[in-house]
């Protein structure tokens, strides 16, 4: 029987930062998420998106991607399917986190 999980199951390097970040997201999913309710307007949910973003792209980029995704999910924001890009565009640098804002709208993704 295939193992099912709501979080990303693909391969990713288990570095200390990524483990810390994914553990924080998982802790949120197990505790606070139940109180906030299922109100995300995207698939995957915002916490699943943040988990996968941290696992794929590291703690720094993943946290920024997750933050901007939560901001897009609010009132007047976007909705629908919004997957984490497999690779990020080269112009996304660690010292310019505001550039991560456009990733969910189809920009800055390098397939």
What percentage of residues falls in helices of 4 or more residues? 40-55%
Head-to-tail CA distance between termini: 31 Å
- The number of helices is 4
| pLDDT averaged residue by residue | 86
The low-confidence parts are none
| Number of beta strands | 2
Q: What is the percentage of strand-forming residues? A: under 5%
Radius of gyration from the alpha-carbon trace, in angstroms: 14 Å
Strand order of the largest sheet: 1-2
Major beta sheet summary: 2 strands, parallel
Overall body shape: globular
Keywords: Cell membrane, Membrane
Protein name: Putative membrane protein insertion efficiency factor
Pfam families: YidD (PF01809)
GO cellular component, one term: plasma membrane
Summarize this, please?
The chain has a two-stranded parallel ribbon. It contains 4 helices and 2 strands. The protein has helices at residues 16-30, 33-36, 46-57, 59-72; strands spanning 42-43, 80-81.
């Amino acid at each position: 029987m295939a193992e099912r999980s709501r979080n990303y199951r693909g391969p990713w390097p288990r570095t200390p930062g990524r483990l810390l970040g994914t553990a924080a997201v998982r802790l949120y999913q197990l505790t606070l998420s139940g109180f906030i309710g299922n109100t995300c307007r995207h698939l995957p949910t915002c916490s699943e998106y943040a988990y996968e973003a941290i696992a794929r792209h590291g703690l720094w980029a993943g946290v920024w991607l997750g933050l901007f995704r939560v901001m897009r999910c609010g009132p007047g924001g976007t909705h629908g399917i919004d997957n984490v890009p497999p690779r990020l565009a080269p112009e996304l640098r660690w010292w310019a986190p505001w550039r991560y804002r456009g990733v969910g709208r189809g920009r800055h993704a390098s397939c």
